[in-house]
Specification:
The chain is α+β, with helices and mostly antiparallel strands and about 300 residues long. It has helices spanning about 1-20, 30-40, 100-115, 135-145, 150-165, 175, 180-195, 200-210, 220-230, 255-265, 285-300, and strands at about 45, 55-60, 65-70, 80-85, 90-95, 230-235, 235. The strands form 2 sheets. Strands 1-5-4-3-2 form a 5-stranded antiparallel β-sheet, covered by helices on one side. Strands 6-7 form a two-stranded antiparallel ribbon. Helix 2 (about 30-40) packs antiparallel against helix 3 and helix 8 (about 200-210) packs across helix 11.
């Protein structure tokens, strides 16, 4: 009996290893399971080929970070996939044209029941990708609700997660130079979408470049940039609490993550309660993280 149990255990291990090698998840979250049940009830739903998973584009994220992906093949057959936060497939199926309306209704039901609830119905409709399976649903919800300050702080947290760092003082120029393009694109896409093009990393990069800012720190360009996006007033850098967390803020005003996050989050723990009052006045060389990030935005072709 023991030998039979051992053999079964080894077989299960081999199956799990094989699944991981092919990018198929071996566990399914309750939220993903609910989505699978909804999709399985669609008339004509047929298992899809794993090879088509990589062709699918992200549609939206569920509240647990599961990504809904869709793809239509050359003969217009609609495919739908679910991926766990690490990007591994947990479900794949397709329907022929006569059942496409049923699939659309199922997707709508999933959005209504399993997506993070916010005041804004547009939340989580932006394609979300992450190199490390990071969950951007909370940021999406905050931006959809125009909770700009909370979204700014959430962006700082998510960027650290993408860089695999705990504190901003640990982040180097080399780290910024290798910021995952998928995550950078997701952050920019969310900010741009919910601000209708007013905020975001790409907008900031374009403003910086229009001032002849380079990839390395340039004090003059950086200070003019600070004036342009509203981070400076009368030749002084503002306190974080004095930033304008409103859609009426100057174009490019948010997110302020790298400038303010690198200072506020980097102070000793004893001062960690001073997030709202720490000043950046006099710290005129803090532009290097943002300048480096703009270079990465350009490399990633956002």
């Amino acid at each position: 009996m023991f030998e039979m149990f051992k053999a079964a255990k080894n077989a299960a291990k081999l199956i799990n290893n094989a699944a991981n090698e092919t990018g198929i998840a071996t566990t399914i979250s309750p939220t993903a399971a609910s989505a699978i049940q909804i999709l399985s009830d669609v008339p004509g739903m047929t298992p899809a080929d794993k090879r088509d998973f990589d062709s699918a584009s992200p549609l939206f994220a569920l509240k647990d970070g599961t990504i809904v992906r869709t793809w239509q093949n050359p003969v217009r057959v609609d495919h739908i996939f679910l991926a766990d936060p690490k990007g591994r497939m947990v479900f794949g199926g397709y329907v022929l044209w006569q059942n496409s309306e049923g699939l659309k209704q199922a997707i709508k039901q999933i959005q209504q029941e399993l997506v993070l609830k916010t005041k804004n119905p547009r939340a989580a409709t932006v394609p979300i990708e992450s190199a490390w399976g990071i969950d951007y649903s909370r940021l999406s919800g905050l931006l959809a609700d125009r909770e700009w300050k909370k979204a700014d702080k959430e962006t700082a947290r998510l960027m650290l997660a993408a860089l695999k760092k705990r504190e901003w003082w640990q982040v180097s120029e080399a780290d910024v130079a290798w910021f995952p393009c998928k995550d950078l694109s997701t952050i920019d896409r969310l900010w741009s979408f919910y601000s209708e093009g007013r905020f975001g990393l790409l907008v900031q990069k374009e403003i910086y470049e229009s001032l002849n800012g380079s990839n390395s720190y340039d004090r003059n360009a950086w200070e003019v940039f600070g004036d342009r996006v509203g981070w400076r007033n009368k030749n002084d850098w503002l306190y974080y609490a004095d930033l304008v967390f409103s859609i009426k803020a100057p174009k490019g005003h948010l997110p302020s993550t790298v400038l303010y996050g690198s200072i506020v989050e980097g102070v000793p723990k004893v001062f960690s309660g001073l997030v709202e009052t720490v000043a950046v006045r006099g710290l005129t060389n803090v532009g290097w993280p943002m300048a480096g990030l703009f270079a990465r935005v350009k490399d990633c072709e956002l």
